[in-house]
Amino acid sequence: MTDIANIRNIAIVAHVDHGKTTLVDYMLRQTGTFRENQQMTERVMDSNDLERERGITILAKNTAINYNGIKINIVDTPGHTDFGGEVERTLTMVDGILLLVDAAEGPLPGTKFVLKKALDLNLKPIVVINKIDRKDARPYEVLDEVFDLFLSLGANDEQLDFPIIYAVGRQGIAVLDIDHEGTDLSPLLDAIVENVPAPQGDIDGPFQMLITTIEYNDYLGRLGVGRISRGAIKLGAPMKVVHRDGSVDDARVTKIFSFDGLKREEVTEASVGDIIAIAGMEDVDIGETIADAADPTPMSFVAIEEPTIAMNFLVNNSPFAGQEGRYVTTRHLGDRLMRELRSNVALRVEPTETPDSFRVSGRGELHLSVLIETMRREGFEFQVSRPEVIFKRIDDRLHEPIEHVVIDVPEENVGAVIENLGKRKGEMKNMVASGDNVRVEFMVPSRGLIGFRGEFMTQTRGTGILHHNLHAYEPYKGDLPTRTKGSLVASDPGEAVAYGMFRLQDRCTFFIEPGDRVYVGMVVGENVRENDMVVNVCKTKQLTNVRAAGSDEAVRLEPPRLLSLEQAIEWLGEDEYLEVTPKTIRIRKKYLDQSQRVRAEKARAGAGA
């Protein structure tokens, strides 16, 4: 059992892609967690498949290192504001933060979001100016911007007196003076030990711990992770689980785990200040309290910001329903969404008037798209509607969420981007040169950003960088333009044929390839005009004995635009659904049902006769 004076609990927070997880890699390497000859994957804390594929942290994770006799518990948090719920709940476990800021990009919306949460909890900050080896690094200017950010967020004098470390995370180097050469991360680790206070708490009081993370083990079931706020715990001790609704259940501790590097080390007891995982409480959820059986006093859970985006999750009822998924019924869909609520604290799930539909609300399109992708990989088949923002009535007036948007674009693309955001009710707040690019800051309604990313990447030819986070709720800004291009809707079922597609490609962009199966009402491409166009992509060449001049020209198709899940969600219209299966994603019109399909087929048969 570690002495409370030899424990430091710290979270690493930053905007997405500023180097948190890479820095943790080197902290683990240099403190002896791995052998010198041991092979390590990059971003070892990003253990989730989706995290590795996307290169971002989605779930907050715990690890621990030992440095000169001090145990440092580290929480690696997500940088994307869509996963802010992970940050909010895990910050309650720590006494200080490492705030990483890119030496070239400076503070971005995600930096502001996580720093505000940390300052509100009165956590001790250590500022790390990372990536000082970049050719466009401007560490001193960035430090001034960080100080201004602290002031704007109302930091007190103690918080403003933050230690400053300069680092090259990908080389495992930290220095106190940028003009000195570093060899390792010891200046950073020393700063943690010296500046982050040891945990406080009554070691002699009855045990109390708030659950902030849930993990799973194939043999032990659910593991509740949290920081001990009071007392000590021993293996086999009787406990009480105090649920969020006020009910209390009996429980018994069957396993206690302390964190050591990437491993969970089994221990027989632990005391106040340490971060541990406990087995034996199958019904425990995030935000609930495990307490001594003699004194089951609940702890208050941190307030999680409300969702801003909602989508409807529905049972798939297309003509291809049930052909590719294992879990396709309303019960399967409802049970899975309810299970997600147990660990995803920023999510909301509500029933709708339709029994086979659920309204799912989250912190952004990425938050919901990660859930959709996770479910389809688990074998679920369902469909979702276009994202829509969640409005509020404040003082009897309609308000909507407003996003703080920061864009870095080449100078030649600035005009087009400003014009596009202006149409979406965006209000420009600042524009400055940033290295080779121009940085533009906007306040934009959240609904104005739905579908914007795809247009933005097209306008900047993939060179633009877009960041945004929720700023506040403000009075409704008025109507916004909808999608400017219509859908290409299949009129006939069957397999797409190159001949049928070739005649149409001058007027559209296809989302499918020859050989793909289609059904009536399925969206197969994007029209160049605003209106929808009904087409037959299954049309084949008529075979006759007469060979017309020029009839045998080669059929050459332009490469289709195969939409990713996020691109498809952004592209959806109000009258469309996205059909999601483990193998395929398809866009379809809402009006499609079995009776309409039968009527359409009969009409075509009658016309042919």
Task: Explain how this protein is built.
The chain is built from 15 helices and 35 strands. The protein is α+β, with helices and mostly antiparallel strands. The strands form 6 sheets. Strands 18, 19, 20, 21, 22, 28, 30, 32, 33, 34 and 35 form an 11-stranded mixed sheet that branches. Strands 12-11-17-8-9-16-13-14 form an 8-stranded antiparallel sheet, with no helix packed on it. Helix 9 (365-377) packs across helix 14 (565-571). The radius of gyration is 27 Å and the shape is globular.
SSE diagram, text form:
Layout (H helix, E strand, L loop, with lengths): L6 E8 L5 H11 L18 H6 L6 E7 L2 E7 L7 H7 L5 E7 L6 H12 L3 E7 L8 H14 L4 H4 L3 E5 L4 E3 L10 H10 L12 E10 L3 E10 L1 E3 L3 E5 L5 E5 L2 E6 L2 E5 L1 E3 L3 E5 L9 E4 L16 E7 L14 H12 L6 E4 L5 E6 L2 H13 L4 E4 L2 E2 L2 E3 L2 E13 L4 H10 L3 E8 L2 E9 H4 L2 H8 L5 E11 L11 E4 L3 E2 L2 H5 L5 E3 L6 E2 L3 E6 L5 E3 L29 H7 L4 E5 L4 E5 L4 H15 L1
Parallel strand pairs: 1-3, 1-4, 4-5, 5-6, 28-33
Antiparallel strand pairs: 2-3, 6-7, 8-9, 8-17, 9-16, 10-15, 11-12, 11-17, 13-14, 13-16, 18-20, 18-21, 18-22, 19-20, 21-34, 23-24, 24-26, 24-27, 25-26, 28-32, 29-31, 30-32, 32-35, 34-35
Distance between the termini: 85 Å
Q: What is the subunit organization of this protein?
A: single chain
Return residue spans where pLDDT drops below 50 for at least 5 consecutive residues.
43-47, 548-552, 597-605
How large is the radius of gyration?
Answer: 27 Å
Largest sheet: 11 strands, mixed
How many helical elements?
15
The averaged pLDDT comes out at 83
Helix content estimate: 10-25%
Approximate strand percentage: 25-35%
